[in-house]
UniProtKB/TrEMBL annotation:
Catalytic activity: heme b + (2E,6E)-farnesyl diphosphate + H2O = Fe(II)-heme o + diphosphate
Enzyme Commission (EC) number: 2.5.1.141
Protein name: Protoheme IX farnesyltransferase
Family recorded in the similarity comment: Belongs to the UbiA prenyltransferase family. Protoheme IX farnesyltransferase subfamily.
Cross-referenced HAMAP family: CyoE_CtaB
Gene3D superfamilies assigned: UbiA prenyltransferase
Alphabetical keyword list: Cell membrane, Heme biosynthesis, Membrane, Transferase, Transmembrane, Transmembrane helix
Matches recorded under PANTHER family: 4-HYDROXYBENZOATE SOLANESYLTRANSFERASE, PROTOHEME IX FARNESYLTRANSFERASE, MITOCHONDRIAL
Organism: Neorhizobium alkalisoli
GO terms classed as biological process: heme O biosynthetic process
Membrane topology: Multi-pass membrane protein
Compartments it resides in: Cell membrane
Transmembrane segment boundaries: 34-53, 59-79, 100-120, 126-147, 154-176, 182-202, 228-248, 254-274, 286-303
Length: 318
């Protein structure tokens, strides 16, 4: 620990004890794995949006969205430090592990939040900045402080926070939203429940030990599995929708359909998994495939968009 010695005019000791956290510890507060997904889907929204944006402004946009996502993660870790210390999956995070003090994490998160929103507004546009501010508020306050510990629908409603990035990228280019940007939002929004409930199935004891009302702990495994299957079907319907709105080609639609059928098959395997199965292999496989699935869907959308632009370019040149 580091002690900064300071005395006021009356001679009163106002020493401040700070942790000896390094840059790596603060970077861990940003939830880099979650941030990578946010950055990737935001980039997809920016690439797919109609119109053009200066490359420098595009980079600033993605950086601001990344910093805003990191700020949300820091605020989430600050508030959840008590339960993180109990859960095996999160016990080694910087705050419960004693590497960063809670007040440092709070100040870090608030500073990054203000910085990311202000820069995005001044450099790009204030609609996107307002949407980023709302996203940070939704994740840190609505989800983390309210929904997470109060309702088994925490992931369903709170999933909106993780679904905003492609809409944010879109707004950075266009200054608004559209049907296509809402579809991009809905892909991630509907994907979130089966993704997180797959994790919740094989981490039931962790969530149960801290009283977080995750769906399997509240309504049971069987009902959770059925809901996962329904949400997987809804995700498939929305994932192929861009092929019918003109945002992507039929080729993309076929590829997205194949990926979604595999996703659905994993959901079927989870549905058939006996309740109380200690190994939870189908749930674990579905969880890891779901991560690949989302990256593949947005990669395919961007690749399809690039191919269409190249065809238009060379077609026009001919």
């Amino acid at each position: 620990m580091t002690v900064i010695d300071n005395h006021d005019a009356l001679g009163k000791d106002t020493s401040l004890i700070l942790s000896e956290a390094g840059a790596r510890d603060f970077f861990e507060l940003l939830k880099p794995r979650v941030m990578s997904l946010v950055v990737f889907t935001a980039l997809a929204g920016l690439v797919l949006a109609p119109g053009h944006i200066n490359p420098v402004l595009a980079i600033i946009s993605i950086l601001c969205i990344a910093v805003g996502a990191g700020a949300s993660g820091a605020l989430n870790m600050w508030y959840d430090a008590d339960i993180d210390a109990v859960m095996t999956r999160t016990a080694k995070r910087p705050i419960p592990d004693g590497r960063i003090k809670p007040q440092e994490a709070l100040a870090f998160g608030l500073t990054l939040s203000a910085f990311s929103v202000a820069i995005l507004g001044l450099a790009v546009n204030w609609f996107a900045a307002g949407l980023l501010a709302f996203t940070i508020f939704f994740y840190a306050v609505v989800y983390t402080m309210w929904l997470k510990r109060s309702t088994p629908q925490n992931i369903v409603i709170g999933g909106a926070a993780g679904a905003f990035p492609p809409m944010l990228g879109w707004a950075c280019v266009t200054g608004g939203v559209s049907l296509d940007s809402v579809i991009l939002f809905m892909i991630t929004f509907l994907w979130t429940p089966p993704h997180f409930w797959a994790l919740a199935l094989f981490k039931m004891r962790d969530y149960g030990s801290v009283g977080v009302p995750m769906m399997p702990n509240v309504v049971g495994e069987r009902s959770t599995k059925r809901q996962m299957f329904v949400y997987t079907l809804l995700t498939m319907a929305v994932a192929v929708a861009p092929a019918f709105t003109g945002l992507a080609s039929i080729g993309y639609g076929i590829f997205a359909g194949i990926l979604s059928l595999i996703f659905t098959w994993y959901s079927v395997l989870v549905l058939r998994m006996p309740d109380g199965d200690e190994k939870m292999l189908p749930a674990k496989k579905m969880f890891f495939y779901s991560i690949f699935y989302l990256f593949a869907i947005f990669s395919a959308l961007m690749a399809d968009h690039l191919a269409a632009n190249l065809m238009h370019l060379f077609g026009g040149a001919a």
